[in-house]
Each structure stands twice: as structure tokens, then as C-alpha cells.
Amino acid sequence: MHDYDSFNEDVICTLAMAVGEDNVTMVEPMSRHTTFQIGGPADVLVTPETPEALVKVLDTCAIAGVPVTVVGNGSDLLVGDRGIRGVVVLLRENFSGISVEGTRVTAEAGALLRDVALAAADAGLSGLEPLWGIPATVGGACFMNAGAYDACTADVLESVTVYVPGGPDEGGARLRGSVRTLGRDELDMGYRKSRVASEGLVVISATFALAPGNSAMIRADMDGYQRRREEKQPLDLPSAGSTFKRPQGYFAGKLIMDAGLAGARVGAAEVSTKHCGFVVNAGGATAADVRGLIAHVQDTVREQFGVELEPEVRMIGEF
Ligand SMILES: Cc1cc2nc3c(=O)[nH]c(=O)nc-3n(C[C@H](O)[C@H](O)[C@H](O)COP(=O)(O)OP(=O)(O)OC[C@H]3O[C@@H](n4cnc5c(N)ncnc54)[C@H](O)[C@@H]3O)c2cc1C
Fold first, then answer.
1. Which ligand 1 atom is at minimum distance from the Cα of 204?
2. Catalytic residue numbers?
3. What is the DSSP string of 80-116?
4. What is the pTM of this model?
5. Do 62 and 41 reside in the same domain of the chain?
6. Residue 59 lies in a domain
7. What is the pLDDT of residues 69-102, one digit of tens each?
């Protein structure tokens, strides 16, 4: 388990007081919280239910010097087999309120993009259709600027409310963070990048600005996008979506296929034969299997085509 002094009973008690005892779990397998269904234990998993409780958790850990990892739907994560030291803050069902006001939809960070899009469609609001099949939470979508079918989160995002870490003061003392609302233009969003990621901000909620539309037509468009996804992607097997970012001027999946790697395996990690851009868990794969396969794919594509594939999947924790 942990090996830092300050992660003691007092910290656990303060966390339990902030979020309620039922929302603190010790030694929780992360395989339960990632779409890869892979990952060793988090020392402590905390699931706050309110923004105030979330801020209290983040401040408590910051001041105690306990590392914090925020996890949404775990759909872009490869968690190491030895798990994650410190506190994992899981923002999902407990933190997923959605409200619609005029043409704006505001959602808490743990709401699934899918549910936000469905609420928007019900209210006759258009803009989220291409994105709704991405299995992201709102927090994860803002962090990654998740996108699909020539659209991305930044296209419809109006603002995010974030926790900004305090950092140490001049004397080295660790400080509380603050809560701020940032407009889309302040978020430096680009291809799979954002200020949320580069500055370690924690998304509390986000507001999307949408356009009025017809509910039935919006739902029909959403169904169309979903069909395209089902045709192309190996949705029947656990994965973290596209394993690699799109290299400039190429498609990762095509390069991997042309390198003869369809179906290539390390342990139970496999390059999908349906879409070579996906590494899938073919049953009981370890994080070491997936990491080994990623390295094999990178080496092979580099040797054959001189192209460097950069993982899109985020590898976190201890391997
Ligand atoms: C079948 C499948 C299809 C996919 N298709 C697409 C696609 O079409 N387009 C695409 O872009 N991606 C796709 N993905 C990848 C993934 O869904 C996205 O990267 C998504 O944005 C991750 O969101 P998440 O909530 O699961 O985040 P997680 O995987 O839980 O976390 C990803 C990163 O975001 C951070 N994070 C999560 N929540 C917060 C928060 N509240 N505040 C701050 N940081 C936070 C985490 O710390 C982590 O670094 C796909 C994945 C799968 C499994």
C-alpha cells in the first residue's frame, strides 16, 4: 500500500467526513472502473456526491501531500497491474446531475456525455449528436477534448467550472485550491488537449451551448452516428477506444493493418481484427500485456513506415 507518512488515519477520517463513510473504499480494484476492465487496486477510492465534498477532498489531499487521481468513466485509461497509490476520486453516477435552461445544458463532471446528449435531444437541442457515442464523462471529455466525426467537445462547450490546485506558497506550505469558471476560449482546447489536462484542473461541471432543433431529427442523427460506430468498432470487447493518436497525414489503424498486425497478441491483449486502431482485452489481459502490445505495435510501425505512434490511451499507476 502507500508509503508516504502523511497518508494516515486522520486523512482517511477527514475524507470520510467530507463524503460519507459509504463513499470511501479501501483497496478498490480499478479493473471495476475502467472500460478495459484492467487495473490493480487504488489505495483509497472516494466518490463525492456534491461539489463542496469534492473540493474538501481535493483540499484535504493537497494539504496532506497525498497524490490524487481523478477518474471519470475510465474509458481512456490503462491502469497498471499494481494499482494507484494515494486517493482516486471517482466522478461518475454520484456526481452526474444534468439541467437544461433555454439552449444551455449544464452537467456535473460525472455525467456521461451520452446522457447529456439524450437530455439535450429530449429538449430539442442540437450539437451533441456526433459526440454522444463517446463513452466519456463530461469531465473526461473536457480533459481530452474528446471528439468524433469532425466534431469535438470544444465546438459546443461554453464554460467549465473547475477546481484550480493551490500549489505551495513561497514558504513551501501547501495551499487550498480555488473554484473558478472558465470560458471555452480560456481552455486552450486542441486535438486531444486542453488546459484542464496541462494544468491539472479538476472539472466540477460544464455548460454546453446548443442550437434549437427538432427532437425526432436529432435522435435520428444520433442513431446514424451510433450505427457507424457499431459497424467499425469492436464494441463487444473491453478496450479504451483508439489506442493511438492520429499521426499527421496517416491513420493509425491503417498503418497498423498494413504492418500486418491485425490480431497480433501479447498475452490476452490483442490488436482488434475489426479495427486495428483498437487494442482489446480478449479475456483476462493484464496491463503489462497491453503495454507490451502497444510497444510491439510502435516498434513494428516505426520499422516499416518510419512513423511514430503516440498512445492516446493514458497509462497511469504502477505497472
Ligand atoms: C469504445 C470506445 C470508443 C471511444 N471513442 C472515442 C471517440 O470517438 N473519440 C474520443 O475522443 N475518444 C473516444 N474514446 C476514448 C474516451 O472515451 C475519451 O478519451 C474520453 O474523453 C475519456 O473520458 P472518461 O470520462 O472515460 O475519462 P477517464 O478515462 O476516466 O480519464 C481520462 C483522463 O481525464 C481525466 N479526468 C477525468 N475526469 C476528470 C475531471 N472531472 N476533471 C479533470 N480531469 C478528469 C483523468 O484524470 C484522465 O487523465 C473511446 C473509448 C472507448 C472505450
1. 41
2. 192, 242, 312
3. -TTBEEEEEEE-SGGG--EEEETTEEEEETTSBHHHH
4. 0.96
5. yes
6. yes
7. 999 999 999 999 999 999 999 999 999 999 999 9
Total domains in the fold of the chain: 3
**Cα–Cα dist 316/319, whole Å:** 8
CA 10 to centroid of ligand 1, rounded, Å: 32
226 Cβ below 6 A of ligand 1: no
Look up the CATH number of the domain holding residue 53. Answer: 3.30.43.10
Which CATH number is 248's domain given?
Answer: 3.90.78.10
- 154 ligand 1 Cβ < 6 A: no
Residue 195 CB neighbours (<10 A): 17
Is the CB of residue 196 below 6 angstroms from any atom belonging to ligand 1?
A: yes
Q: What pLDDT sits at residue 5?
A: 47
What angle, rounded to 10 degrees, do the helices at 113-122 and 215-232 form? Answer: 150
Q: Find the domain containing 75 and state its range.
A: 9-93
- Mean pLDDT, range 12-41, rounded to an integer: 96
Residue where one domain finishes, among candidates 198, 214, 229:
229
- Residues 111, 201, single domain; the answer is yes
Asked whether residue 109 is domain-assigned, the answer is: yes
